[in-house]
């Protein structure tokens, strides 16, 4: 009986990868709310940007909506990890709703920074991506016009603030570290007096996941990033992999998205997952490779993470 020999393949697993503390906390908040209040529990926007997570919570009794007016007054509502404009909890309070804010504490830190700068009379620049829920939430902490959005180096070169000598900047937490450094460099060059964050706004999880991808990219014929197309940190990981020397990099939602017929003759594949992608999706991808190749796995670890955020009292 003929035996077919499977091709050898090295899988480089980025570490850290997958869930961050803010995502883990947000998911726990929905689960605890369902336990405490029963189903249904409403969630304004996807709790985190991952369809697998959302689908699982829906089977447990969570109902995901985009607007507060889609929620009844007599059922709990949870605000997503990305944060919401200040008017959202204000309206919920007026309606006497039970609501739980699952905003990541590191996003809340940016909100507090922006409010502090505004109270000091400074004009604020937010480095981020237009339309992203986190950006909408951060800009919504202050009156219209108090924050100007900068997305690119070109924006940083062209922005004409009204208070060039009394400026501050904050950033979205899930940006490319390298791209943001370039934008910040331009802003500092143009506005030497600009107030900078006391501590880096880009969160530890984003930074660590990008560093891990950089550490393996040059060795890879192909890098798979598991995550959702609307997940900012996942999309950035693809960009980081390509910029760091990976021959190819693809964003996939799960192993089901892999077109095995077009992979070709590869020898080394990198695997990582965005901060809102659960471990099970990584495990399924690794299992799919092991079905098809003679696999050797290697961890490429750049940091250990032990961050844990407390749950709100309403669900603790």
Description:
This protein has 316 residues and is an alpha/beta fold. The chain folds into 3 domains: 8-19 and 204-301, 4-hydroxy-3-methylbut-2-enyl diphosphate reductase, catalytic domain (Cobalt-precorrin-4 Transmethylase, domain 1, 3-Layer(aba) Sandwich), CATH 3.40.1010.20; 21-101, Rossmann fold (3-Layer(aba) Sandwich); 105-190, 4-hydroxy-3-methylbut-2-enyl diphosphate reductase, catalytic domain (Cobalt-precorrin-4 Transmethylase, domain 1, 3-Layer(aba) Sandwich). It is 37% helix and 19% strand. The chain contains 10 helices and 12 strands. The chain has helices at 21-37, 51-60, 87-94, 105-119, 133-139, 153-158, 177-190, 204-217, 232-243, 279-292; strands spanning 8-15, 41-44, 62-65, 77-79, 99-101, 123-127, 147-150, 167-171, 222-226, 249-252, 268-273, 294-301. The strands form 3 sheets. The chain has a 5-stranded parallel beta sheet with strand order 10-9-11-1-12, sandwiched between helices. A 4-stranded parallel beta sheet has the order 3-2-4-5, sandwiched between helices. Strand 6, helix 5 and strand 7 form a beta-alpha-beta unit. Helix 8 runs parallel beside helix 9 (232-243). The mean pLDDT is 96.
In short:
By secondary structure, the protein is α/β, with parallel strands linked by helices.
Topology readout:
Blueprint: E1 8-15, H1 21-37, E2 41-44, H2 51-60, E3 62-65, E4 77-79, H3 87-94, E5 99-101, H4 105-119, E6 123-127, H5 133-139, E7 147-150, H6 153-158, E8 167-171, H7 177-190, H8 204-217, E9 222-226, H9 232-243, E10 249-252, E11 268-273, H10 279-292, E12 294-301
Parallel strand pairs: 1-11, 1-12, 2-3, 2-4, 4-5, 6-7, 6-8, 9-10, 9-11
């Amino acid at each position: 009986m003929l035996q077919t020999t499977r091709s050898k393949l090295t899988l480089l697993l980025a570490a850290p990868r997958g869930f961050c503390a803010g995502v883990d906390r947000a998911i726990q908040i929905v689960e605890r709310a369902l336990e405490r209040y029963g189903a249904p529990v409403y969630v304004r926007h996807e709790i985190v940007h991952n369809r697998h997570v959302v689908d699982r919570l829906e089977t447990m009794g969570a109902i995901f909506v985009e607007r507060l007016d889609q929620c009844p007054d007599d059922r709990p509502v949870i605000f997503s990890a990305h944060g919401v404009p200040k008017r959202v909890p204000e309206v919920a309070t007026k309606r006497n709703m039970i609501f739980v804010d699952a905003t990541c504490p590191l996003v809340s830190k940016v909100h507090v920074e922006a409010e502090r700068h505004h109270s000091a009379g400074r004009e604020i620049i937010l480095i981020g991506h237009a339309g992203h829920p986190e950006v909408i939430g951060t800009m919504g902490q202050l009156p219209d016009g108090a924050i100007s959005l900068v997305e690119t180096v070109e924006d940083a070169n062209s922005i004409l603030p009204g208070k060039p000598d009394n400026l501050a900047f904050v950033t979205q937490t899930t940006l490319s570290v390298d791209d943001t450094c370039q934008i910040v460099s331009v802003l500092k060059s143009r506005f030497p007096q600009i107030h900078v964050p006391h501590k880096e706004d880009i969160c530890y999880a984003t930074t660590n996941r990008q560093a891990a991808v950089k550490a393996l990219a040059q060795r890879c014929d192909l890098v798979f990033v598991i995550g959702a197309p609307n997940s900012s940190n996942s999309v950035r990981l693809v960009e980081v992999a390509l910029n760091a020397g990976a021959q190819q990099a693809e964003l996939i939602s799960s192993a089901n998205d892999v077109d095995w017929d077009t992979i070709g003759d590869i020898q080394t594949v990198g695997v990582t997952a965005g901060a809102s992608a659960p471990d099970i999706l990584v495990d399924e991808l690794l299992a799919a490779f092991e079905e098809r190749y003679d696999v050797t796995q290697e961890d490429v670890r750049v940091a250990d993470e032990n961050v844990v955020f407390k749950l709100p009292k309403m669900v603790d």
